[in-house]
Write a structure and sequence with these properties.
By secondary structure, the chain is of the alpha+beta class. The chain has helices spanning 22-58, 63-68, 120-127, 132-135, 146-149, 153-161; strands at residues 103-105, 139-145, 169-176, 181-186, 203-209, 264-270, 279-282, 285-291, 294-300, 305-307, 325-336. A hairpin with a 2-residue loop joins strand 7 (279-282) and strand 8. The longest helix has 37 residues, at 22-58. Residues 116-337 form the TLDc domain.
Length: 337
């Protein structure tokens, strides 16, 4: 009886491939699995970390992350799309220390109190509107006074020539024939020039002294009071005072001293931005503000006549109660620096 060899499944005439035991197959597959799991144990955390960083950089913060941020640090994106709006800031509760009281220097002892135009109370009002760097200056110096230096615009220019090149500001004070006080703050010293000059820090101003409050003793008694033995009382209206402090209370140097505070109504007209006609001076006149054929403030070479009209540079009203044209009774120029 003959035996037949098993035939290969590939149909060829070669010998058949010997079959491996199933235990050997399981051992080899487990070896490969262990090799792949060991390599993935080290590479998977690295790839996960890199992909997480890329995803965090390329995407916007989630709503949960924004909700965890303080309200003051969240950017305001409610405006134009694509335009970043910085977060809303809140004012600091800390306030700067109060300014040191001003001291006015430059008057001569022979100068009468009635001829001094700028009072300390008025200077403090102007001080609040000048640039912050000059608000710290504690002493204002008189550069020109019509009472002390004479009636001449050329003298005013000459006195300012010595101050050119110094960083500071200038306060022009004018008194008209009716006793009104007004003027301007200038960023540059007045000097003849063929062009306009000055910065947007310039402004015009005017001031009025309000009538003082009567003392309580001069007030009539209330209706419920017993007026059987009351004597007759007559109220006499006192004349209007000028802006200078009273001579009996004001010190001669304008520095320190006790005086009754004046109730001043102060009004300023800052730069409007319509044009750049701040200061324009020639040998024959001095002008501040202009446009449309009008000057905000204009003084002639003898400092006797002046003009004040509404001008586009400052959008001001006429500074003098006498009208657009007025008589000049006093002029002062103060240097701050």
């Amino acid at each position: 009886m003959s035996t037949y060899a098993p035939v290969s499944s590939n149909g060829g005439g070669g010998a058949a491939e010997p079959q491996r035991p199933s235990s050997q197959i399981r051992s080899s597959s487990s070896t490969n699995t262990n090799r792949y799991s060991a390599s993935s144990f080290f590479t998977y955390p690295v790839s996960r970390t890199v992909s997480g960083l890329l995803r965090r950089i390329s995407t916007e913060p989630s709503n949960n992350l924004k909700a965890q941020m303080p309200p003051g640090l969240q950017p305001n994106t409610s405006g134009v799309p694509g335009l970043y709006t910085p977060p809303r800031r809140h004012a600091s509760p800390f306030q700067p220390p109060p300014l040191t009281p001003l001291s006015l220097e430059g008057w001569k002892e022979s100068t009468r109190e009635r001829s001094r135009l700028l009072s300390r109370q008025l200077a403090e009002e102007i001080r609040l509107l000048i640039p912050p760097r000059l608000q710290l200056v504690e002493t204002w110096k008189l550069a020109y006074s019509l009472e002390q230096d004479g009636v001449s615009l050329a003298t005013l220019y000459k006195n300012c020539e010595e101050l050119r090149g110094k960083r500071g500001g200038y306060v022009l004070v004018v008194r008209d024939g009716g006793g009104g006080i007004f003027g301007a703050y200038l960023s540059d010293p007045p000097h003849p020039d063929p062009h306009f000059y000055g910065t947007g820090e310039c402004f015009l101003w005017r001031a009025h002294v309000l009538p003082g409050l009567p003392p309580l003793s001069s007030l009539p008694p209330p209706p419920s009071a017993d007026t059987t033995n009351a004597q007759r009382m007559t109220t006499i209206v006192q004349p209007k005072h000028h802006l200078s402090p009273p001579g009996s209370n004001a010190p001669s140097n304008g520095g320190s001293g006790a005086s009754t505070p004046e109730r001043i109504r102060f009004k300023a007209f800052p730069y409007s931005g319509v044009n750049d006609y701040m200061i324009f001076c020639e040998h024959g006149f001095l002008s501040i503000g202009g446009g449309d054929g009008h000057y905000g403030l204009w003084l002639d070479d003898n400092l006797e006549n002046g003009i004040s009209s509404s001008c586009p540079t400052f959008g001001n009203e006429p500074l003098s109660d006498e009208g657009q044209k007025f008589d000049v009774l006093g002029v002062e120029l103060w240097f701050i620096g």
